[in-house]
Amino acid sequence: MIDLSGKVAIVTGGSSGIGLATAQGFLKRGATAVSADLDSPDDGQIEFVKTDVTNPESLQKLVKTVVDKYHHIDILVANAGIAEKKAPVSELDEDNWQKVINIDLTGVVLTNKYVVKQMEKQDSGGSVINMSSILGLVGGPKSQAYSAAKAGVANYTKSQAVTYAARGIRFNAVAPGYVNTPLLKTLPKETTDAMIGKMPIGRLAEPEEIANVIAFLASDEASIVTGAVVSADGGYTAV
Ligand SMILES: NC(=O)c1ccc[n+]([C@@H]2O[C@H](COP(=O)([O-])OP(=O)(O)OC[C@H]3O[C@@H](n4cnc5c(N)ncnc54)[C@H](O)[C@@H]3O)[C@@H](O)[C@H]2O)c1
Questions:
Q1: Cα distance between residue 127 and residue 73, in whole Å
Q2: Hey, what's the signal peptide range on this chain (predicted)?
Q3: Distance CA 40, CA 134 (A)
Q4: Average pLDDT in the 73-101 region?
């Protein structure tokens, strides 16, 4: 099993779904896991710091609380996210657009900002895993803010991967297909039925399946920079 002993991890949105499975997977592998969420986890073992990922003061307080107690942060999973109101763009709900972009894209970047500042101070590397989605990689009917946010997370993460590679702070994004979590229950049944139809495995993924991939990316076993490619003109491209 992947060994994360002694590592301290923050998981945003760690009180439900993929985030909760990720935090539980970290604990099982020997790490300390802190859920940074609006709501506390229904799990006696995972620590909780009430956090709003759209609020810089809340994020600074999160980092301070964790560093005061554990003195370092080794892993960040910027996972908190919400679904969108599906509609063609001609019927876009502008408030919903802003809310989804604020949480799913800006929230990831802000969380990275304050945690990576701490990782820079520690000067001992780190692993940042940001949550994208299949909808950030391919088109989805009636999706606007969610697709834009998740595509933004994917490409933003590549830029950070090449920016921080030499300092040993690794950035990866995961882009799951459809996963059996409370987030899907916020969508109409015809939408979730269509999602199952698009899954090659013929079912929704389980949160633990995504959590296992995240645990690997968080571990020292993934500590080589596999994503940076040096192009012929000497520039770097993350893949
Ligand atoms: N479920 C899927 O099919 C699927 C597929 C691909 C990607 N994702 C992404 O995975 C991530 C987790 O989704 P999930 O399905 O586990 O959802 P979920 O609803 O079960 O969990 C999301 C968590 O994020 C928290 N959260 C929401 N807004 C927040 C904020 N402002 N600050 C802090 N926490 C906040 C919620 O309280 C909740 O605990 C999301 O980014 C989602 O977009 C989900």
A1: 9
A2: none
A3: 27
A4: 97
Token readout for 37 is 């969420």
Would the pLDDT of 148 be above 60? Answer: yes
Q: Would the CB of 84 count as within 6 Å of ligand 1?
A: no
Count other Cβ atoms within 10 Å, centred on residue 135: 20
Q: Is this model's pTM higher than 0.85 or not?
A: yes
Q: Would you state the pLDDT for residue 233? A: 53
Catalytic-labelled residue, pool 70, 114, 146, 236: 146
Give the CATH number of domain 8-238.
3.40.50.720
Instruction: Answer yes or no: is the C-beta of 195 below 6 A from any ligand 1 atom.
Output: no
Q: Name the token pair of 42.
A: 């229904």
Q: Which pLDDT band, with edges at 50, 70 and 90, does 237 fall under?
A: low
Whether residue 175 contacts residue 134, with contact meaning beta carbons closer than 8 Å, is answered with yes
**What count of other Cβ atoms lies within 10 Å of the Cβ of residue 106?**
15
Using CA atoms, how far apart are residues 74 and 72, in angstroms rounded to an integer?
Answer: 6
Query: What does the DSSP assignment read for 162-206?
Result: HHHGGGTEEEEEE----B-SHHHHTS-HHHHHHHHHH-TTSSPBP
> Does 140 contact ligand 1 (Cβ within 6 A)?
no
Ligand 1 atom closest to the Cα of residue 21 is 16
In the annotation, is 146 catalytic?
yes
